[in-house]
Amino acid sequence: MSKSAVTCLDHGKVIQAFCATEQQLLCIDCIIQQQILHKTHVILSIEDASAHQANLLAQNLKKSQKVDSDIKNTINAMKAELLLAEEAAHSKRKGANQLF
Ligand SMILES: [Zn+2]
Ligand SMILES: [Zn+2]
Measured in angstroms, how far is the CA atom of residue 14 from the centroid of ligand 1? Predict the structure, then answer.
């Protein structure tokens, strides 16, 4: 197999098109059964979809990387706060030790 054929999870048939509106891969059965549903949706041929999906994947990757850095920032902020709290507690203890 030079080209790995993507098959429909519902029908096990080769994917023919891609619904850009729902981000859903469609086999011939999907298209026939859901043609009314997808009538107003943007349907791409599988060739177009591959390029489209590659773009989407790149976008999602960027998004997840952004989320990752957001989480890291939050964690770093929390760590900094924790450190400050620890330091404050430590200096209080020090002060208490000096009193006794
Ligand atoms: Zn199908
Ligand atoms: Zn659709």
Answer: 8
Residues 6+ apart with CB under 8 A from 10: 27, 29, 30
Secondary structure element (H or E) that encloses residue 76, with its range: helix 46-99
Query: Phi and psi at residue 55, in whole multiples of 5°?
Result: -65, -45
CB count, 10 Å around CB of 30?
22
Q: Which two tokens stand for residue 80?
A: 């900094």
CA distance readout (Å), 64 to 1, 60, 75? 32, 6, 16
State the Cα angle at 38 between 33 and 42, rounded to 5°.
140
Ligand with smallest separation from the Cα of 24: 2
Ligand found nearest the CA of 28: 1
What span, in angstroms and rounded, lies between the C-alpha atoms of 43 and 32?
13
pLDDT tens across 45-78, in order? 888 777 777 777 777 777 777 777 887 888 788 8
